[in-house]
Structure formats: C-alpha cells, structure tokens
Automatic annotation (TrEMBL):
Catalyzes a salvage reaction resulting in the formation of AMP, that is energically less costly than de novo synthesis. This is Adenine phosphoribosyltransferase. It comes from Roseospira marina. Gene3D superfamilies: 3.40.50.2020. InterPro entries: Ade_phspho_trans, PRTase-like, PRTase_dom, UPRTase/APRTase. Belongs to the purine/pyrimidine phosphoribosyltransferase family. It is found in: Cytoplasm. Residues 47-148 form the Phosphoribosyltransferase domain. Homodimer. It comes from the Bacteria. GO terms for molecular function: adenine binding; adenine phosphoribosyltransferase activity; AMP binding. One of its GO terms (cellular component) is cytoplasm. It catalyses: AMP + diphosphate = 5-phospho-alpha-D-ribose 1-diphosphate + adenine. Pathway: Purine metabolism; AMP biosynthesis via salvage pathway; AMP from adenine: step 1/1.
C-alpha cells in the first residue's frame, strides 16, 4: 500500500508558502492506519525500546498506539505549562513558528531506552529539542521515528540518532 495516497496536501496552511501535509485522512482510513502502525512497529522493534515518547499533539496519535503495540511505556513531550510537578523545557524554531517543549523531570528511569515519535519531521527543530529534553532527564535516546519526512528541509541532519520515516517528500 502506498501510504502517500492517504495524505492530504493543503497549500498555504497555516501561513502563505507552507504546503501542509495533513494526516487526518490517514487516521480516518482504518486499513491505511493499521498498515502505518504495523510499519512503525516493525522499524521501532529493532531498537528494543523501554519507552516511546510522543510529541504533542499529533505525535501523541502515533506514539501511544505504537507503545501499546510494542508493550512499552508511553511518555509525553508537551507544549509548555501543561504538565504538573517538576519539568524541564527547551525553546526552538520549527518550520513556521517558535515553540517550546516540556517534559516531567521524572519521566524516565535513568538509562531507559527511548524512541521519540512524531507525525512529521520538517526542520527537525521539534525532534532535536525533544531529544535534548529526554537526555536531560536521563534517557538513552536510541532512535527517532515519524510517518512523514520533508527531506528537502534536511531535518535529519540535526538529529544524532537513527531516524526512521515511512515516507519522504523531496520537494
Ligand atoms: O521539524 P519541525 O520544523 O520542528 O516541525 C515538525 C513539527 O511541527 C508539527 O507540529 P505543530 O507544532 O504544528 O503542532 P501540532 O502537532 O500540535 O499540530 C509536527 O507535528 C511536528 O511536531
Ligand atoms: N509542512 C508541514 N505539514 C504538516 N505539519 C508540519 N509541521 C511542520 N511543517 C509541517
């Protein structure tokens, strides 16, 4: 199955000049979503992760079912101000805005193997900020995974762990 057939491309969202890759159509298609999660699980299993970290908000949609499939724990990398207790934060630039991510300082046990999961890799700002946070709280980040990679933005160059993408757009 070509999963690209299930991605909707919307020009000029959320601002002029951005071509937005919408996963709503993929999520809504039962077979395509099953295939997506099967392929993610196959790529991720190799790393024998203890924990899957999902990046708010679309990353949660991918990371939580992946964690269930692999029998792993699931932890949240969130937008700021939403997590109770002690947290650490990191501010960065993504494809269209400045953003901050936050994690609980006790989110992982020291040395736990973590795969960071998001729906889409663009500039890599979100993914590398999330990896920095996870390391700050003691995680051994072993890989990053996403459904869509915007290869022309070269986001994976900013990431120092193996990156798995189910599909790549080169222009
Ligand atoms: O590689 P980058 O340039 O950092 O861009 C990728 C990030 O941008 C999108 O999230 P967005 O901030 O739009 O939030 P959402 O998931 O809440 O829609 C996407 O879900 C990734 O998290
Ligand atoms: N072009 C894009 N489409 C969908 N999500 C994104 N996140 C960052 N860039 C994006």
């Amino acid at each position: 199955m070509d999963l690209k057939d299930h991605i909707r491309e919307i020009p000029d969202f959320p601002k002029p000049g951005i071509l937005f890759y919408d996963i709503s159509t993929l999520l809504a298609h039962a077979d395509a979503w099953q295939v997506t999660m099967g392929r993610m699980a196959k790529a991720a299993r190799v790393y024998q992760p203890d924990v899957i970290a999902g990046v708010e908000s679309r990353g949660f949609l991918v990371a939580a079912p992946l964690a269930l499939k692999l029998g792993c724990g699931f932890i949240m990398v969130r937008k700021p101000g939403k997590l109770p207790g002690g947290t650490v934060t990191h501010t960065y630039q993504n494809e269209y805005r400045e953003d901050t991510v936050e994690i609980q300082d006790n989110a992982v046990e020291p040395g736990q193997r973590v795969i960071v999961v998001d729906d889409l890799l663009a500039t890599g700002g979100t993914m590398s900020a999330s990896i920095s946070l996870l390391r700050k709280v003691g995680a051994d980040v072993c890989a990053a995974a996403c459904i869509i990679e915007l290869g022309f933005l070269k986001g994976r160059d900013a990431i120092d762990v193996p990156v798995h993408a189910l599909m790549t757009y080169d222009s």
